[in-house]
Amino acid sequence: MDDTLTRNIATPTVAGKYVRTFSYSGPTGNIHVQSNAQDGTNPYADSEVTIASLPASLKGADFVQAAKADRAYSAVDLMELAVPAGAVISIAHDNRLPVPTWLSKMFQPTGETVTVGGKAMSVFQHKAASAESLTLGDNATGDAKNANMYVVFVR
Q1: Is the pTM higher than 0.85?
Q2: Of 11, 16, 25, 30, which has fewest CB within 10 angstroms of its CB?
Q3: Per-10-residue mean pLDDT for the chain, 155 residues long?
């Protein structure tokens, strides 16, 4: 087994104000849940791009500071997170990419957008009726090398 992959599959830990546990199986290390998303927030651990035009519904949310470099990494269980009842999980997904099947099955489009690094990303949402764990897959099928990695928000 690859040492990098072994290192990054972490035991779920307490992660943020709204996220109860989080784990990441991608190749990049140091992926964390951060609190208080705002315009100007950097959504990626390995890039200097920032969020702009953040809808009011996402301001103050926890967010996963993922790796932009992992935008083309393929995994059915890239991220796993546990949230309490009543949490609203939102995914901002790059409009230049096809919507992954896991995203369209578990989340509904909101009609809102977020701008990350000058690129529009559509927001999809899932409301947790009870405490639950979610498994999030990869960013896209096809050519994602010039796109943004999706961004996870939880309120």
Answers
A1: yes
A2: 11
A3: 38 72 92 95 96 96 96 94 97 95 97 96 97 95 85 98
